[in-house]
Write a structure and sequence with these properties.
The complex is a heterodimer of chains A (433) and B (323).
Chain A: E1 5-12, E2 18-23, E3 26-31, E4 43-46, E5 51-54, E6 56-61, H1 74-83, E7 86-91, H2 102-115, E8 119-122, H3 138-143, E9 150-151, H4 161-170, E10 177-180, E11 193-194, H5 197-202, E12 206-207, H6 209-226, E13 230-232, H7 238-249, E14 254-258, H8 260-264, H9 286-298, E15 303-304, H10 333-342, H11 349-363, E16 381-391, E17 410-420, E18 423-427, E19 430-431
Parallel strand pairs in A: 1-4, 1-5, 6-7, 7-8, 9-10, 10-13, 11-12, 13-14, 14-15
Antiparallel strand pairs in A: 1-2, 2-3, 5-16, 16-17, 17-18, 18-19
Chain B: H1 13-27, E1 44-49, H2 54-66, E2 70-75, H3 87-97, E3 101-106, H4 111-117, E4 124-130, H5 136-150, E5 161-165, H6 172-183, E6 187-191, E7 207-209, E8 221-224, H7 230-233, H8 240-247, H9 251-254, E9 262-264, H10 277-280, H11 287-307, H12 314-320
Parallel strand pairs in B: 1-2, 1-3, 3-4, 5-6, 5-8, 6-7, 8-9
Helix pairs in contact in B: 1-5, 1-11, 2-11, 5-6, 5-11
Classes of the chains: A alpha/beta (433), B alpha/beta (323).
Amino acid sequence: MTQRIILRGVRPLGGESADVVVADGVIHQIATPGSVAVADGDRVFELTGQVLLPGLVDLHTHLREPGREDAETVRTGSAAAALGGFTAVHAMANTDPVADTAGVVEQVLRLGQEAGYVDVFPVGAVTVGLGGEQLAELGAMADSAARVRVFSDDGKCVDDALLMRRALEYVKAFDGVIAQHAQEPRLTSGAQMNEGAVSAVLGLRGWPAVAEESIIARDTLLTAHVGSRLHVCHVSTAGSVDLIRRAKDRGIDVTAEVTPHHLLLTDETARSYDPIYKVNPPLRTERDVLAVREGLADGTLDIVATDHAPHTSEDKDCEWDVAAFGMLGLPTALSVVIDTMVRPGLLDWAGVAERLSAAPARIGRLADHGRPLAVGELANLTVVDPDATWTVDPWDFPGPSRNSPYRGMQLPGVVTTTLLRGRPTVVEGQLQW
Amino acid sequence: MISHLLSAADLDHDDAVLVLDTAAEMATLSDRSVKKLPALRGKTVVNLFFEDSTRTRISFEAAAKRLSADVINFSAKGSSVSKGETLKDTALTLQAMGADAVVIRHGASGAPHRLAEAGWIDGAVINAGDGTHEHPTQALLDAYTIRRHLRGGEGDLSGLRVTVVGDVLHSRVARSNVHLLDTLGAKVTLVAPPTLLPVGVEEWPVTVSYSLDDPLPESDAVMMLRVQRERMNAAFFPSAREYSRRYGLDQKRMDMLPEHAIVMHPGPMIRGMEIADGVADHDRSVIVEQVANGVSVRMAVLYLLVGGAREPRPAELVGEAGL
């Protein structure tokens, strides 16, 4: 047996306190507090009152490697993930070169294994070079060592209806899912921010809600028609929540995600013209924020996914029009969910485990993540101190990018401990090795 | 008084009237043989133009020079978006040169905000037109012109009815005018095809009309906006001819205006498109006068932002100089 780790006094899913013993990479024992005898060589973490969750799983992360190592690498992004309480992330395909072949996805897989902070699951591109014209070799990526199940042209929409239909049909052969970035391109040419009262005043070109909703409506109908599986990335509007709710009511196999920033921030932030708030899809209105919170609470939106999108300061410290879209999300995701969902009573800790771990693992068809907190299960675990608060300072993050919209904000919930298959990646909030 | 002029909404009622009153004092200069005040002697004003705009640049240059400022013209067309210097580097350069005021024209909405608020420079930032956002000194000169003709050059614009016609969606002039005219108490009607009005316009303090004929008999001033022919290709309207027929100001529509009403245009005009030749040259057209008023208004803005309250009032300076 390897060294035992005793998580003393934790509350599994926010329930009764327990001492949780981890050994040989699995949960070995869940006992009443104080009942576990400490043996020589045991490592004891005093975590009284803190909440034990299954390790978080992100279905939507941009790790930027290969191609933009100046913004993030698999290593730094994995470290940020571990610090945020994650044990698995899905690395989006819009790298350079694009992850549209078995070779690239296997490279990303290998880089993730070498970093070792979290399990990195590469997402495969739907079309060659994200070009939207020809299907990438989805089967080869599925059969590769990376075992790709999630396919996405994220950053771009698969807007061609026929190509989307074919992709949805084709991935049925290996139980894959198409994760769609829903954005009608003609309605959003040159778009900069949510189209509405604020964009009208600011003179920034609008990104209308209907550009997202029309694609979701089409794709849910296509999914029903071919009997496949659709995942909708970063749902941002009240209308989208409504469409997905109705599609689910009809039995269509659709899942959906919301980002932390769409749970918290609105388009009012654009009044600063600070591109730190420029993101795609854009921050919407208060009404939309309330709708996605409600959708996440009732399960219409299955998961929270970060859309962690690192950018260098050159790409952000400039005029809004020329700035890149995207914001950091991994280190702050759980805190934003606690702030917007747990504290207001919209989601309990079991709900957090479902939306940030179990459900994304199911969508990604991950066997080893998002499992119940039970004896014998792999010890992919996160411990969060729900009562502690912290002030976000992007200079504390491991990667080279600083584009966090939460900088300077005080957020609730500090991730103190993360275990990956029983090995501590974060202890007392500090990255290990 | 505010420290930057980024939006016409930065000006409250008293500030706006103060700018117009100061501009009126500045205007008395142009009647004198020596058109110069020492107010900004030793100050440096940079005209930072990322877009071509000879008219606006010359107007600011004349204004700064009449106040005895040192003027540096920095034409940086295209350099922010292309591979050249970034806005940030340009700003740091200007900071190193000790610019007391930066007059910026930029193709990106909000670029003046970034310049003023990103911590790159200390000087006053004056927005000379940013993207499709705002052009506050144009609105000030428009208000000044309206006040001179319809309010005897004093006070505000309470109760006046101003009709703004054209491509509101892409117009920085329209946005600034809506803010300022509302602040000064005027009633604004926007006239445009629905495609050229922004989503969200319903929250503006204006009345919207899709017909030009309806508001004309009730208008004290009509402001025509430029409509770029390229908009036609992006399906905002079917043809230039149809636009002109429905939204152009021709002689027939001119005759629908009250006797006292004035016609304005921020320039450059497309004669025959949004405004008929005869209307542009009509004796109730104040388009050329708008240009002259632009210098006075920009002198006032520079004086109030850069000269500051420490300086003597312009009237005193005029007296001292023995003009």
